[in-house]
Amino acid sequence: MAKVKKKIKTIKIDADRCNGCRGCEIACSLFHAEPKYSSINPAKSRIQVVSHRLKDIWLPVFAGEYTPAECMGRDVYTIDGKEYDECGFCRAACPSRDLFKDPDTGLPLKCDMCEGEEEPWCVKWCLNDVLVVEEREEEVEEEEALDDMEIGLEALTNKFGMSKVMETLARMSMAKKG
Amino acid sequence: MRYAEVGYNLEIDLATGNIERVETDPKMMELHLGGLGTSVKIHWDRVPPETKPFDPENLLIFSSGLFNGTPAFSANRTVITFISPQSGLLAYPMMGGFWSSELKYAGYDKVILRNKSPKLVYIWIHNDKVEIRDATHLKGKGALETQDLIREELKQPNAQVAAIGLAGENRMFCASIEQSRSSASRLGGGAVMGDKNVKAIAVRGTKGVNLADGVEFMKLMEEVTEYINYRNTNPIPDVMTILSGIGSPQEMVHTDEKWHTENFAWGNARNRRKNFWTDEIEESWAKAQVEAIKRFISCYNCPQHCGALIDAPNVPRYMMKCFSKLTYSMAAYVDNLDFGFKIAQQASEYGVDGFSTPQILAFGVELYENGILTDKDFEGCPKDNEGRFFWLLDRVVRREGIGDVLADGTYWAAKRIGNGAEEFAHNNIKKHEQLPIKLGMLDPLYFLMYSTNEKISITQIEGNWPQAAFPTKEQRERFVEDWPQLPDETWKEWLLEWELRGEKAIPYFPTPDIAAQIVDWMEMLHNIDDALCICAGMGSFCLKPPYHIHNYPKLISAATGLDLDEEGLKKIVNRSRNLHRAYNNRLGMSRADEKPPEDHWKKRFPEIEEELLTTYYEFKGWNYDGIPTRERLHELDLDYVADDLEKRGILKDGQGQEEN
């Protein structure tokens, strides 16, 4: 398969530099407001600073994928003597918590790196360089992206074998015509 | 649609438990902006001057400002207003932290508390749901401890909580209201909150704050951001380190305390120790500070880090800001900084003012050493300086024994003790303890600021004009060449002419005319900040700040949709400022009260001082007694205030401009 170049964007989070101001949440919600820049609501931000001040925890977390199900088990991390809350580092919008859900609609929120902007707004707004965006190119094997139907059919052929699936499709097609 | 403000106040009657969400008149923003401005208006309309601080009718208002919750950097102050038990005047201590933005996200600009709750309660505001909850299980808990207990109880890790400690519960006159790394400390807001039986107000909001023209606002903020970055990398030369940057004085970052320890007075604002800062002290204090600080932290949406999370040996963690690391050590004559970090933790949990309290304790010690207080008053008190301060602090916040007397602050305590104690309450203005500074030569600017401002606390009056003349011409030229914040280019001449000694030096220069203009300008900047709830550290309190009179009108216009220019903005804050003055006049304040402590300067000049005050009053449009004239009030659309002052006989025949 041919090799292609792909741009990977990473936000590096230096939580040790975080002063806990939560300006990133303001900037995010402002950019994603409709219309853009019309209002601020940090509860709608796709970055949240998970914090416990006296425990010295200030942890910016970005919203990742939505997942319809909770994890079967939960994580509690202790790092450098600091115990982080259950699921503290997790980026998912999931049924187990309110994080990364629009407070008005309940719909999941996901970081889109402020597509179209020079850099994500949270990065731009953080004057303490807690958030730094890095872009690199990676060579990856070209993969043709599968659409939803292909993904479904592939799952069926894996399970039943190609010939069985084709037979079934032919029969269904005949029945419809008939 | 309302912009910048959210347009609703929360009215809570603590006696009946009635809670109302009340839409506010949009006209109030046009007349008074918000924050301090609109709060003063509410006090004027609703709290008559017969009201005593601990009367149920004394309102306690927690207010956000116009810019909280917007992207404006450092808009994180909460202004708390009430008639002070200490001064008897309308006080407005402010705190930073995270509370007021959260309040706006919950959908309210202010929380207005009236009457008293029959039992100890806390208030829980969660968007449209507001509850008064039992707090009897929190009685006696520390002010910081309470914040986490409430968050846990509500299972709301993102709730912001403002709470009082034991001092507030026991109505100590210098009790603070604590929240996150910040506190509203001056003049006893915590005492009024405790009197109303409110332990805390917790708030969580998930709604929005709107901007009228967000695109324009962000364009203006880009310039502000650029300037913040510039100032953070280009400290001002030729001034002390703590004055060279922006934000609050960076007391947590800087360890060099030569200036404070040798120039501020130790004990009960008594003695300067001119050779205190030895190599040995420098080393041990720097070590104590570096080891105690776990992390530098900020308030909401602020790039600075004026505070710190403190993790000192054998002390529960807490957060510290600014100057309180020194006030207790210096007042107690303790030469190690560990003591400062240790007692400040206790003081934060008790919830007391870190400026007044150390002086009250030192005042108690002095009275004892001078035989005015006796062994009986100090029975059980340790003999060492450290132990004595811990013991006294505990007595004061619990109002036990002599602590009950001292808990009213030095002015009232001296009156109660008598027997010459008044002489020892020497560092007050309007009954309120001041920074322990004792200097040589009368300073015209500081004389006016100390005497006349309603804040009664110099750190929140001074600011944009340098504290002293620069020694050399080159330094002056360097300072003025890059000074866009000045209201008028011609003012640069005043700084260039200002010398350390001679005719063009204090007490003669700045002349009364010039001093009046400079002080009025600095005060106006503070009043703008206090209406917007921008931290003074990014506006009125520091040299060459990011926010100033030339960009504020544009930012306010973009945020609110008002069409404001500099004159328009000045008129609004002057209106609120004069309303505040008239309110305090109504409470009995006048010229006789407007004076710094007698020993503030060694060299005093009664004639110059008289001229300064008279000139400044005239410049402000106030009569000889310091009361706004009808003419001035009319210019500011405050005819109703003039009518009231005349009716009460405070303004006589309209003016009373002449001495009589």
> What share of residues are in beta strands of chain B?
5-15%
Structural class of chain A, please? alpha+beta
Please give the radius of gyration of chain A in angstroms. Answer: 22 Å
Radius of gyration of chain B: 24 Å
Number of helices of chain B: 25
Gross CATH architecture of the largest domain in chain B: Orthogonal Bundle
Chain pair sharing the greatest interface? A-B, 32 and 43 residues
Percent range of helical residues of chain B: 25-40%
- What's the overall geometry of chain A? elongated
What sequence of helices (H) and strands (E) makes up the elements of chain A? EHEEEEEHEHH
Percent of residues in helices of chain A comes to: 10-25%
Largest sheet report of chain B: 7 strands, mixed
What is the rounded distance between the termini of chain A? 42 Å
The fold-level CATH name of the largest domain in chain B is Aldehyde Ferredoxin Oxidoreductase Protein, subunit A, domain 3
Low-confidence stretches of chain A: none
What portion of residues of chain A belong to β-strands? 15-25%
Total strands of chain B: 21
Unreliable stretches covering 5 or more consecutive residues of chain B: none
- Number of individual domains of chain B: 3
| 3D shape of chain B | globular
Describe this structure in words.
The complex is a heterodimer of chains A (178) and B (660). With 178 residues, chain A is of the alpha+beta class. Chain A folds into two domains: 3-141, no CATH class; 148-177, no CATH class. In chain A, 24% of the residues lie in helices and 22% in strands. Chain A has four helices and seven strands. In chain A, a hairpin with a 2-residue loop joins strand 5 (78-79) and strand 6 (82-83). Chain A is elongated, with a radius of gyration of 22 Å. The model of chain A has no long low-confidence stretch (mean pLDDT 90). Chain B has 660 residues and is an alpha+beta fold. Chain B has three domains: 8-204, Aldehyde Ferredoxin Oxidoreductase,  A, domain 1; 238-416, Aldehyde Ferredoxin Oxidoreductase Protein, subunit A, domain 2, CATH 1.10.569.10; 441-647, Aldehyde Ferredoxin Oxidoreductase Protein, subunit A, domain 3 (Orthogonal Bundle). In chain B, strands 1, 2, 3, 4, 5, 6 and 7 form a seven-stranded mixed sheet that branches. In chain B, strand 18 and strand 19 form a beta hairpin. In chain B, helix 1 (26-32) packs across helix 2, helix 2 (35-46) runs parallel beside helix 22 and helix 20 packs across helix 22 (566-586). The longest helix of chain B has 21 residues, at 512-532. Chain B starts with 7 loop residues before the first strand and ends in a 13-residue tail after the last helix. The model of chain B has no long low-confidence stretch (mean pLDDT 96). Chain A binds chain B through residues 19-23, 26-27, 29-30, 33, 35-44, 51-54, 56, 58, 85, 103, 125-128, and chain B through 69-71, 73, 98, 105, 144, 148, 157, 180-181, 205-211, 214-215, 217-218, 225, 228-229, 232, 294-305, 309, 311, 317-319.
